Every structure is written in structure tokens, then in C-alpha cells.
Amino acid sequence: MENREQIICQLNTTNEPHIQKVISRTFEDLCSQVKSESLVLSVCNSPVFIWPNKGGRATPECLTPNSPCKDLQQFIQTDDQESMKSKKKEKTNASAVVINLNLMTEVTEPADLSATTLMRCSTKHHFLYTAMPMDCVVSLPSSERLSVVYDALVVALCSQLDEMKKVMLRHMKGMTLLIPQPFHFLLPDPVGLVTVVYPAGVPDSQLEIQRKELHSRFELPGNRPYLRRANSLHFPDEPYKDGYLRNPHLHLKPPTLGNGKLYLVQGVYSYHHYMQDRVDDNGWGCAYRSLQTICSWFQQQGYTEKAVPTHKEIQQALVDVGDKQGSFVGSRQWIGSIEVAAVLDQLLGVTSKIMFVSQGSELASKGRELANHFLSEGTPVMIGGGVLAHTILGVAWSETTGEIRYLILDPHYTGAEDLQVITDKGWCGWKSPQFWDQNAYYNLCLPQRPKTI
Amino acid sequence: MGRGYIVENMVEKYLSSLQAPDSTGTSCVTGLLIGQSTSQRDLVALAVRTPQRNTDGQGSPSINRRAWISLDHLDVEWVTEHARQVSRMLPGGLSILGVFLVTVPELSKEAQNILRQLIFAVDKHISKGRLWSLTNEDVTEKVALHICTETRKTVCRTFDIRDPKSSAKPADWKYQLGVCTSWQVLTCSVGLDLLIPVLDMRVLPQDMEKCMKEGLKIWAKQIEVGLCLINGKILADETEIVAGQKKNAKPVQQTFQAQILIPMAEPPSVQTSTVLVKMCSGSLSLKGMVHCRAYLQSNKSRVKDAAKVIKRDIINTVSSRVEMFLEDLLMEGVDNGRTSLKLKTTSTVDTVPEMPCDHPNKAPKSLKNYYISVAMAAAVALLATGTSLLYLSD
Fold it and tell me: How far are the Cα atoms of A119, A345, B238 from residue A205, in angstroms, in the given order?
């Protein structure tokens, strides 16, 4: 549930303890607004309105406090066909359904029943004003009663206000107050869904202390990021604004090998390929695109705040490390896995392992190494050889038979971001060892996760 | 095809009782016509004459006799101020639909010009400081009624107030019994809790009105775009609020409870990472509750009409109370750090409205205050009649 609450307060002096008192009092007021009878929850895309602090009164009236919360779904209207399809799928898979709510207030539910008064104050003061970006999530089984849901939401709102107040006061400098912003994270079981409030404008790099505290509180490993802003949960019903496809491999049916296991990339990456971003790199840019896919993985796992580099930026990085001449920038020259590793190091501070096979046929024997890579690092692998570059997103490998299949993301695709085409035509697909040129030599770049939170 | 005004019978009786020249010698009688104009029907429920201006030392009868042959002495400012006072007191849904003019036959020719002048002046004065905006669905034509004292003939025309150069269009004027019966009623109580900062460059008390207006404008916009529930339900705009009416069934007056929902806060127009800080020289705080009530013609009124009238009544009620209050405050001239004044919040129809100034027994402090008491007395008398008609049950 996402919404905003207004915070208005007046400060007569710039005395710090006084400011703290006023801010605390303001947050107390906000909390009482949240607990008041005039709070109304509006279910998005539906005619449902709920008064959680008035005994769970709702309209339409058939939604009583004892109704199971899955009853809310029937009122939600979606107009496009796509989401109707996916909804059906979700029902059969029993996966989570997201119901979005907005916070509203009923003007016609007066808290103060006294006659109107107008007060005028003529003392000089500072006036502080902002809208608090409240965003709470509550996860409950669909059979849970609505009254439990309402209580949970109100409690979540109040505790978020409390956290926001703490963050605001902790990062206060004189009259500069930072707006607290909530982020949701889906942490590994048994922790699950948590919401953390970070101050706006403070980069992740300066929030390490807070993350250390949280890592120890949630018993998370201290060597990989879980709570950077980039790690925040992306809700299934929200489209990605940048237009790139995420994890197309999840829509594929994996191969079944006798005694075989799957070793796949961990986390989220974006599919980068020929002709994207209005760059016509058809015929020469495949390694660049594979590198972009790898960079997108590091950005979305929270290892860097840098955007995915463009072809020119990649080329400039190689010039900067002395690997190429200045004329390289703007050219259509190919790069290989060594250059990919160099750029990852230069731009992202990421080190990589290089694997070399003298013949494509040898790749079939690299099952164990690749499996171990995906288990420990889980990063996408760039493979270059012959005249082509590809990205390996995982392997299906049988330790006993040695059978192997490669999950390949092909940067040579020139079409639109059409998931159906990409999966049907094998632009993202499982390939056999015959996929490789049996006589060419190949270099593989295996990026390593930096040890950081 | 002009507009057709359906007028309550009582209005005919009232208008025929008006004489010109009257006892004080004024050669014409002006007044207001009150009702509701929708795209479906124009209903006139009340008429109220402009009260006489009691200026001392006015004239011997000889002067008056000269006056009756011209309309020169017509005090447009007085008429518009009366209109503003009456307009403030009207419950939601009722508004000033136009102006009437009763004259002797000799002045009939001038009458049309005078009516035109009055219509535009009244509309301009009433809409000053209005916090809500007219929509495409609002009727912008106002009625100008002329009655000749001798022939008792009525000439009814309309002017479109959006176009000052427009010419008068003919309109129908028909009397009917029972116009005021069975109107639908919408009620609600609205809580207020506004804190309006007075920015550093402004100074209280001079800029108080400006600051108050700016703050109220933001609040009024929220109300205008807010969601309206009728009797606890959210219905589509075009739904009739009295559903399932048989074709010729007599409409029954119903009372509907309105609820207005607004988002808790608006996202900022510019995303910032820090809280906005402003230096202020003071602040205004408006807190408490007002009762609001609006009336709707029973003929096929839709949810969006209902929402419109109750929202406008909410905005008007708060806005006019604050106006009256600011007038008082300016007159009192109080300027000690903090001032607080209680507004009397009475609904304008079912009880006798109290005088807005705090000391009704003192002599009027200024002309403005005087206007108020006179105008209200006149309006009350007629609204009292109006009230009983509106509440007539089957």
C-alpha cells in the first residue's frame, strides 16, 4: 500500500532539542490520524472503500470484517487481456496476489465536533512541509479475515511512521531534514518480507553502518548485498520502466537429464541485444551486449549504482586502462572476454576468472567448473570464440553421465522485446554441446562477486 | 428555443404585492430570483426584493416625486451587496438565478437596460472570491424579469453571463403549484483542520485575507476533486440518486448522507530529498466543524449533480463564514500576537441565522455591518416562507 501523509509543523527556534520535540509531536499527530475513524483505505481499480478504524466498515457491504481477504479480488477490475491471462495462471500456481491500496481521509468524519475557530498567530517561525511517502506491505494468507488485515495495516503504518521519525531525526542537520523513504526487501526464509526506511539523498555507500546492523539483525551473510536500494523487491504487477526484459529464461522449460541438476544464474539481469538503444551494432556488438547484460546483473544485485554502460563508454574504459588506442572509441571493433574482464574491473571494480578451451568440443567437459561457478558466484558468463560471443546463464549437468546442456542468452537478436518470440525462437534457450564450433577456441569470462554488503 | 422557468405559485403572489412607486416614492422595485437551474429544468422557488436603504435625511416628498420618473437613483452597489448577502445564506443547490424589476409603465423601455446592468453586476459581485470553478455542465444564463405595475405584464428574458456583449434571449415564465415540494436533500458535517502559513513577505493583519484565500483555494480544490459517496455507496456519475422511480409517480423527498473522501496528501510536484522549509511571519489556523446541506430537484437528479451541489455548499459555507469572520476581525482591529474567534456554525435554513457580528445590540459600526443586518432580515423573512415550502411532505 503506497501513499502519502502530510507533515506540517512549526518551529519557533532553531534550537535542536526543541526541533526534535516538535518533529516527534508531529509524527504523533500523524499516527493519530492513521488510527482515527476518518482513515479510509481505497482498493485500487475497484469500488471498495474500507474504514479500518470504524469496526472494519466497508462498501460494498458484503465485505464484512469476517470475510476472507481473498474476497477483495473479485472487485478488482483489470482492463487488459494480458493480466487476465496471468491472473488465471497465478490462481493455478497459488502464487501471491498483490492488492494495492491507497490512503484516503474522510473529510465528512470530523474528529473535532466543536464550532469552527480561526486562530491567528503573528510570531515569526519556520514552517516545514512535506508529504511522507508511506509504503507498507502486509503479507497474509488469502483465507485470513479482513479484520486481521486491517489491524495489521494500521499497525504497519504506525510503525513505519515511527521508523521514519527515527531516520529523520538521525540524519537531521540543523534545519535540513531528509525525507525518509521506505524500501521493501524479500529476504531469504525465514525472514521473508521486510521494509527498511532510508533517508533520501544519502547514497548506499554512506549507509553501510545501517546495513551492517540490519544484516546482523536478520542473520544475513556479511559478504553479499541484500539491503541496498537496488535489491528492493520488484512487485510482480509493476512494469519495468526501462523497457528491457528481465530473466526471460524463467519462461523456459528446462531440459531433464538423467541424474542431472540445474545450475542457474542467481538474481535478476536484463536482456541486452543488437539494435537496442538506437545503436546499430549488428555484426560487431555481440560481446558489448553480453557485457551489458553482465553489468545489468551487478547493478540489479546492488553491487553498483552505475548505469549499464553504452558501447562508447565501454570503449573509453578500454582506452583509459591503456588496452586500446584513442581511435578505438566510436569504432566498430570487436572485443573478447579479456576486454570484457578489463572493463568490468575498470568500471565496476569487479574481478573475473578467465577460462580457456582450445577446442569447442572441450566445453562439454567443463560441466563441473561451470556448475560450481553458478553455485558460488551465480553471475552470467560471457563466452567468446570463433566469430561469436554469447552469454551463458546456466547449465544442466549430470555428475554421473557427464551430460550437459547450456542455457544461452543470444545477443545477436535484432527484434523487439517480445518474450514470446525470444523464447520460441531460441534467442534465450537451452543448447546442446553441438551448439559450439567444435574446432574453434573459446575464452570465457566468469565475473566474481565482490565481497561487500 | 429559450429557457423555460417554472415558478412557484407563492412567488406570483409576492410579486403582485410589490408596488411602484412605493411608500417611500421609489419608482422601481428590484429584487432577486432564487432557485435551481439545471440542463433539464429551471425552477424558481423564491423571490426577495432588495430591502430599502434607510438613509437619514432623505428628501421631502417633493424630491421623491421627481425621482419616480427616472431610474437614476438606482443604487446598483446596494442591489449587488444585497445579492451577495443573500447568496451567502442560501443552502446548497439554491442560487440566485436572476433579477426582477417592477416599474411604472413609463420606465418600461429603460427597464431592459437596467436589468442587463443588474444581471452582470450581480453575477460579478457574487462570483468574487468564489473558490470553485464553473464546469461545462453549469447553466450560465440568468433570468431578467420585468413587471409593469399597471398592466402586471411580465417580460422574461435571459442573458448569458459568459458573454457581456450577448443580447437578451426570450424565455418562458410559468407559474405552477408545488415547485418547492419533494426536493432531495443531501447533508454532511465537514471537519476542518487547516494550517495556513503566512510567508515572510506577507504581514498580518493586512495580508490576512490574501493568505486565507490562497490556503482555502488549495483546500477547495481537494474537495472539488474528492470522491463523493451517497448513503455510503460509490455510484457511477450518471446513476439517478432516486433509483427505480415509476414514470408518473409522485416524487418523495429523501435525505441522503454525503461523504467526501480525499487522498491523505498529494505527491509533491517536484521531487526533493529534503523537507521544504519556509520562513513565516505568522500563521492562520482554521479548525472545527461545519454542517452542510444541499437541495436537488427531484426530477432525474444524478449522482454527479448531487456531488456537485454538496461539494459547492461545503466550499461556500466555509468560504463565506471565513469572509464574514475576516470582516469582523478587520473591523475590530485587534492585533495582539494571537487572536481567536469562534464562527457560529448554524445551518442556513432550518434555524434563524444569527447575526454574524458579535454584538447585535450595539449600533452598527459601519455601513458594511448595516448592510448585513438589513439584508439578512429581509432574506430571513422570505427564507422562512421558503423553508416551509421546501419541507412540505406528501
Answer: 47, 18, 55
Name the pairing type of β-strands B4-8 and B172-176. parallel
Residue with the three cell numbers 574481478: A351
The verdict on a CB contact (< 8 Å) between B205 and A179 is no
Portion 308-327 of B in contact with A at CB < 8 A: 314, 318, 321-322, 325
Facing residue for B280 by CB, picked from A109, A124, A179: A124
Residues of B within 8 A of A4 (CB-CB) are 263-267
Instruction: Show Cβ contacts of residue B285 under 8 Å, excluding neighbours closer than 6 positions.
Output: A118, A119, A120, A121, B194, B195, B196
Kindly give the pairing relationship between strand B255-263 and strand B184-199: parallel
Cβ-nearest to B264 among A3, A112, A124: A3
Question: Which residue from A minimizes the CA distance to B211?
Answer: A120
pLDDT digits (tens, 9 = 90+) for A208-245: 999 999 999 999 999 999 999 999 988 877 778 888 99
Output the tens digit of pLDDT for each of chain B's 394 residues: 688 999 998 898 898 888 777 666 677 889 999 999 988 889 999 999 998 876 544 444 444 444 444 566 678 889 999 999 999 889 999 999 999 999 888 888 888 888 999 999 999 999 888 899 888 888 999 999 999 888 888 899 999 999 888 888 999 999 998 888 878 899 999 999 888 888 877 666 667 788 888 889 999 999 999 999 998 888 888 888 776 555 556 667 788 999 999 988 777 777 788 888 888 888 888 888 999 999 998 777 889 899 999 999 999 999 988 888 887 777 765 554 455 555 443 333 322 222 233 333 333 333 333 333 333 333 343 443 333 333 322 2
Mutation test of the interface with chain A: which of B200, B230, B264, choosing the one with the most A Cβ atoms within 10 A? B264
Specify the residue for cell string 449600533.
B363
Using the beta-carbon criterion (under 8 Å), do B277 and A119 form an inter-chain contact? Answer: no
Quick one: residue A142, left, alpha or beta (phi over 0 = left, psi -120 to 50 = alpha)?
alpha
Tell me which chain A residue has its CA closest to the CA of residue B285: A119
ipTM value, please give it. 0.78
Q: Do B286 and A117 touch (CB under 8 A)?
A: yes
Rounded Cα distance between B204 and B192, Å, is 22
DSSP state of B254: -
CB burial readout A234-261, b (16+ within 10 A) else e: eeeeeeeeeebbebbbeeeeeeebeebe
Question: Any chain B CB within 8 A of the CB of A25?
Answer: no
CB contact under 8 A, A112 and B340: no
Distance (Å, rounded) from C-alpha B88 to C-alpha A30?
35
A3: chain B residues, CB-CB within 8 Å: 263-265
Contact indicator for A430, A423 with CB cutoff of 8 Å:
no
Is residue B71 less than 8 Å (CB to CB) from chain A?
A: no
Residue contact B289–A132, C-beta within 8 A? no
Is A122 within 8 Å of B195 when comparing Cβ atoms?
Answer: no
The 10s digit of each residue's pLDDT in A363-398 is: 999 999 999 999 999 999 999 997 899 999 999 999
Domains and CATH numbers, chain A: 4-74+100-106+123-182 (no CATH), 248-447 (3.90.70.130)
Beta strands in A160-277 (DSSP E): 180-187, 192-199, 260-264
**Residue A115 touches partner B, C-beta closer than 8 Å:** yes
Residue pair A422/A408 in contact by the 8 Å Cβ criterion: no
Q: A136 CB contacts (<8 Å, ≥6 apart)?
A: A1, A153, A156, A157, A160, A182, A195
Active site residues of A: 286, 410, 412
B279: nearest CA partner in chain A? A126
Contact by Cβ (8 Å): B267, A131 = yes
Inspect the interface and report whether the beta carbons of B284 and A106 lie closer than 8 Å. no
The verdict on A203 touching B (C-beta cutoff 8 Å) is no
